[in-house]
Write a structure and sequence with these properties.
Layout (H helix, E strand, L loop, with lengths): L2 E7 L3 E8 L2 E9 L9 E10 L4 E5 L6 E4 L33 H4 L5 E8 L8 E3 L4 E2 L3 E4 L5 E3 L6 H14 L5 E4 L8 H24 L4 E4 L4 H9 L4 E6 L5 H11 L6 E4 L6 H4 L2 H7 L4 E3 L5 E6 L4 E6 L9 H23 L3 E6 L6 H15 L6 E3 L7 E6 L6 H5 L15 H16 L6 E7 H7 L4 H11 L2 E7 L7 E5 L2
Helix pairs in contact: 4-5, 8-9, 11-12
């Protein structure tokens, strides 16, 4: 498998793309001056307790306050000391937290607390925050306040899982925990130890900053997109890292040498006449990732529609191959769709609730096979995914952890014409409204010429299908009516009267 990383940076933004075997699999964009908030740590002040939500709103010094649920509140002595045992089987939030208490018994208004952003602001919602801080390194994620040791679920060798568990357990202080990341598989004791030592020093620096700061104030920021991509995406299979900013070469090579001594991909500077993404054919793939429809091999497609509450994905059938049964064609289409949906969720970084409407299948064994394939495809996703079984309507629901903003938030904005709804009023409806406006104006019985102004697409109907109605109205009123076409699709409809 050929794997290349492309890093494009200019005055406005940084774009990072990961390409495997010629296909774009990961894409992230970070605007200059508008870096991601995820992973940032703040000293915040509790502004409001919402007992109905069992949550608090925390002032971080940002445009919107952070939302802190009671389950994410940490207090000293909340968790028991870490006990020896077997390797954890899930990468993500540690298990064993005590039952959630009412938020009013945990926090009070005006209290200053340390919080970390776990989810970016979205739509009208502010960032989600937690008091359980985690610091990601190359091989491990340090949990400085949680005595939990876990191993990524993608490391499936039981002996390796146990080795890593015991190694990390031995290197950590009793009050702290860590999760071994997928890239930590095969790491030596020295590599794990260096990671933990670096992250513990970073935590100590945060503690000192907290002690000398007042709320609301900023304490710590995660790496910028360039270094974060190198940390999270580079693996031993990567062949090339392409950059187009010569000023980045030294820090990229230094970072790779320190954090990826086993990989050592070549760092190449792109200085051709075309921009980096255009030269390697990535521009088209980026544009395609913003379109709702994705074609499937052998016919059919999936349509991805976003709403504020959830993302809805519809699977549409195509032509059936000669000699294929209906059940066989449905299964094959759904399997193609499952693989493509898993890839698109990762590429577009879609988080939250997702509803997938597959083509209905009668045979229970086909439904079980589809569920297994979808679960396996989602299993390699670095974001935590939870999936339900297919219901009687042929729909599978899943949730994907929302950490950073989707590419829609970074590369698109609500349409100025439809206000983000995805549709505009029909030309015929606008034409009917224009006639009603004219009828109201004619009721004043003012003498003169009536100038009816409307969007061009409505004027075409007024001068075509409704031309006779318009003539009758002007004849009965004994006035002259002119039509003024406005090229703007969202132009206001209005009537003015001028003296003859």
């Amino acid at each position: 498998m050929t794997t290349n990383l492309y890093i494009h940076r200019n005055q406005l933004e940084t774009r990072v793309a990961l390409q495997r075997d010629g296909r774009l699999t990961d894409l992230e964009v970070e605007h200059t001056g508008g870096r991601s908030l995820s992973g940032n740590i703040y000293r915040g002040r509790v502004k409001r307790i919402e007992r109905n939500m069992n949550a608090a709103f925390v002032d971080l010094g940002l445009e919107r306050m952070g939302l802190l649920h009671a389950a994410d509140v940490w207090t000293a002595g909340l968790l028991p000391p870490r006990a020896a045992g077997a390797a954890g089987d899930v990468e993500g939030a540690p298990r064993g937290r005590p039952k959630t208490k009412p938020i009013g018994r945990l926090l009070e208004t005006g209290q200053e607390i340390m919080v970390q952003v776990t989810r970016e602001p979205a739509a009208r919602k502010g960032p989600r925050v937690t008091m359980f801080v985690s610091l990601p390194g190359r091989n491990v994620v340090l949990l400085p306040q949680e005595p939990h040791v876990g191993v990524s679920r993608m490391i499936d060798d039981p002996a390796e899982r146990q080795r890593l568990f015991e190694l990390v357990h031995r290197l950590l202080p009793t009050h702290a925990g860590a999760i071994v990341r997928t890239v930590g598989e095969g790491s030596t004791e020295a590599e794990i130890g260096n990671d933990i030592a670096f992250l513990r020093a970073q935590w100590q620096d945060i503690i000192e900053r907290y002690a000398h700061a007042s709320a609301p104030s900023f304490l710590h920021v995660d790496l910028d997109l360039t270094l974060r991509a190198l940390r999270d995406l580079v693996d031993p299979e990567m062949e090339m890292v392409w950059i187009d900013d010569d000023a980045d070469r030294e820090r990229v090579e230094t970072f790779l040498t320190r954090f990826h001594p086993e990989a050592r991909p070549q760092v190449r500077l792109h200085d051709g006449p075309q921009p980096l993404f255009q030269a390697f054919g990535l521009d088209g793939a980026v544009r395609a990732a913003l379109t709702p429809t994705v074609a499937l091999p052998g016919g059919g497609d999936i349509v991805i529609e976003r709403t504020e509450a959830m993302t809805v994905i519809d699977v549409n059938s195509g032509s059936r191959e000669e000699g294929d049964t209906l059940a066989g064609a449905q299964l094959r289409l759904n399997l193609f769709a499952a693989r493509e949906i898993a890839a698109q969720l990762r590429l577009r970084n879609i988080g939250g609730l997702v509803a997938i409407d597959f083509v209905k299948m009668r045979r229970p064994e086909d439904r079980r096979m589809l569920e297994a394939v979808l679960e396996a495809e989602l299993g390699v996703d670095q974001a935590r995914v939870r999936i339900t079984r297919m219901n009687q309507l042929g729909i599978i629901m899943l949730t994907r952890k929302r950490v950073r903003q989707s590419i829609y938030a970074r590369l698109s904005e609500p349409c100025a014409i439809c206000d983000g709804r995805g549709y505009v009023r029909s030309a015929s409806d606008l034409a009917v409204e224009a006639l009603e406006r004219l009828r109201q104006a004619l009721g004043s019985k003012t003498k003169g010429t009536y100038h009816l102004r409307a969007p061009a697409r409505a004027c075409a109907i007024l001068q075509g299908q409704l031309a006779g109605v318009l003539r009758d109205m002007s004849s009965q009123a004994g006035v002259h009516v002119t039509i003024e076409s406005d090229p703007r699709p969202d132009a206001d409809i209005g009537v003015k009267v001028s003296a003859n």
